[in-house]
Amino acid sequence: MAGESRDDEAAGGPELRRPGPHPIADPVNPAARPSVVGIDVDDETRCVHYHTALDVIAIKMRCCQTYYACKDCHEALADHAIETWPRHEWDEAAVLCGACGSQMSIRRYLESGSVCQACGARFNPGCRNHYHYYFEAAPGPDG
């Protein structure tokens, strides 16, 4: 999601990078996984915009209840603006691990330390730079 690895576009198009295998304790049947919308989405939710080995999450957009690979894919493909998830809805399962297919709540994802608690896959810690597109900001010291 937040890989900022777009240098390969100059070389004639995006190149999807595949990581090595992850230790998956409870693999999810790929046919049962939610579908992920995006541009050139691979089987671990990477897209044309974010495709490093760590870019393995998709986020269910609050506005349409659809998993997208990233905000840029949503902006390119959806006919509406992104809505942020309000804090009182952070217990909603809205983050998908592309490595194992497990869904987690927003709160669990934000507290995960950039690691899937189901399979141990590492997530891109740079995604935190984009939280404000998806999740309402934490209240400040005054409320």
Polypeptide structure, described:
This protein is α+β, with helices and mostly antiparallel strands and 143 residues long. The protein has one domain. It contains 3 helices and 5 strands; from the N terminus they run E-E-E-H-E-E-H-H.
- Any idea what the radius of gyration is? 15 Å
| Relative helix content | 10-25%
Total number of strands: 5
- Continuous helix count: 3
- Quaternary state of this entry equals single chain
Q: Would you tell me the overall average pLDDT?
A: 82
Query: Could you give the distance between the termini?
Result: 30 Å
Which H/E pattern describes the elements? EEEHEEHH
Low-confidence stretches: 1-26, 139-143
Structural class: alpha+beta
Q: What is the 3D form?
A: globular
How are the strands ordered across the major sheet? 1-3-2-4-5
How much of the sequence is in beta strands? 5-15%
Counting structural domains, the number is: 1
Write a brief caption for the model:
By secondary structure, the protein is α+β, with helices and mostly antiparallel strands. It has helices at residues 71-77, 106-110, 131-134, and strands at 36-37, 57-61, 66-68, 93-97, 103-105. The termini are far apart.
